[in-house]
Amino acid sequence: MNDKPWSSVITPDDEARYEAAGFGRPLGIGSSPALLIIDVQYRTVGNTAKPFFDSLHDYPTSCGEVGWAAVERVGQLLGAFRKAGRPVIYPHVAPKRAYDAGRLGAKVPAIMTIDEHGYEFVEEVAPREGDILVPKRHPSAFFGTALVSYLVDLRVDTLFVTGCTTSGCIRATVVDAFAYNFRVVVPHDAVYDRSPTVHAVNLFDMAQKYADVVSTADALNRL
Fold first, then answer.
1. Domain boundaries along the sequence of the chain
2. Which are the catalytic amino acids?
3. Looking at the chain, which runs of residues are DSSP E strands?
4. How distant is the alpha carbon of residue 173 from its chain centre?
5. For a FRET experiment, which of 8, 111, 185, 204 has its CA 20 to 30 Å from that of 155?
6. Phi and psi for 160 in degrees, rounded to 5?
7. Greatest CA separation found in the chain?
8. Could you report the per-residue pLDDT of 104-132, keeping only the tens digit for each?
9. Residue 53: how many CB atoms within 10 A of its CB?
10. Residues 169-208: pLDDT tens digits?
11. Which fold has domain 12-21+29-222?
12. How far is Cα of residue 57 from the mean position of the Cα atoms in its chain?
């Protein structure tokens, strides 16, 4: 597994600049991790695994088969967290109503057309009794939600962040988690986006500033 999934996009000169400036040092993990599974709903992967442009026939917000590949990795992490008895939290977008449009509805009108099934959690990694559901309206799982309160109550010090999209809800949540002084791990093959280039660039930037970006295999070893 490539430990630098951005290597086809980020140049050696780009990396040298950040290294010379002292970015990218590891955060490590604490003693009390929790798993965030963000927006792993059918609307973000399609009803079945298929290429990106084909998956748009299911939902215009689908990322296609890369999402299904990530779901498999999310499942591995979910199994490990369940076995360890550690918290699993599902920040997710609830079905949109007309009054939810806001600026996002103006920017991406298709998000207002998703049917009820699209908002269901993907069966392979769906929540079960005891998991925490956090409905949200905006990219960050922290903005306007009770997430911090849950994490404080559970004495969580480290967040493993999975789901989608890498450049949107993942990145926004990671930046806010960092701002709240949590340690953050992003398993790069357990997050997904509709553009491989945007996915790679955002992973690189998060790795330099806000999180430890590792493979799922490495994340499982750390656990």
1. 12-21+29-222
2. 169
3. 33-38, 88-93, 132-136, 158-164, 183-187, 191-192, 212-214
4. 8
5. 204
6. -95, 115
7. 49
8. 656 666 776 787 899 999 999 999 999 99
9. 9
10. 999 999 999 999 999 999 999 999 999 999 999 999 999 9
11. Rossmann fold (3.40.50)
12. 23
